[in-house]
Hints:
- The protein is an alpha/beta fold and 286 residues long.
- 41% of the residues lie in helices and 15% in strands.
Amino acid sequence: MTAPAQVAYDDVLRVWREADGIPQIEHAWLFDHLMPLGGDPNGPTFEGWTLLSALAARTERLRLGVLVTSNRFRPPALLAKIAATVDVVSGGRLEFGIGVGSRPDAPRARREYAAHGLPFHDSTHAVESLAEACTIIRRLWTETAPFDFHGDHHHLTGAFCSPKPLQRPCPPILIGGQATPTLRVAAEHADRWNMPGGSIDKAIERSTALDRLCNEIGRNPAEITRSIVLPVSYDRPEDTRNTIRAALDGGFSHIVLGLHAPYPTAVARWAADTIIVPLSDKITTP
């Protein structure tokens, strides 16, 4: 994962193109913020989906996505069209990540809404909107005739998406978040669930909660791949490996390594050789 803030386009492109040639690295991710979360508050931040499309056109193998898209930023039908475009550009490599958006108690993230004229609704509204968005997006990707949708938060008339994504029936949907209301949406809609950081013990507890919510609606919890973002320490790689081991032992098979800028020369190769290869006996493809 390369957060597209406080970096240049060439920096991100260099890391992704290098990673694209390393088989041990299976996927690459951006984040979805419109302003920096750290460092210079007026520093550069690239729009995630625009950048993802550019990177999709310059890579060949990596599965790729935004971890995770803020459902607060774009209407779901527009987002479905954007994502379908990226899936076509990438040759069918998109992993569709989505979540409710920024927490109300994160001032750095909260300010981007006012700065871009975007409403910031309360958490109940945001979770309900996310559930409707997941329904709309999947229908747009899979249904062959225009349809109407009239929910509590989204209303569409004659909705249709063409071209469809290349992946059939559609790209995998990854829902990120840890609050119980968001986990309920993941239990119903997600192919993958991502825990956005925090301790391994907390991640395991939230994964267990997801199991329970799946059981409540009659869904097999094993259908949802467990994913987690883990920060990489350039100075203490053994600490990173230990954390990954704990995550794997806790049932998380989709590991996202968070690289921090500035990116060292050949950082993707370093991550493969120093972090991933020594753990190869424990890693299985999800």
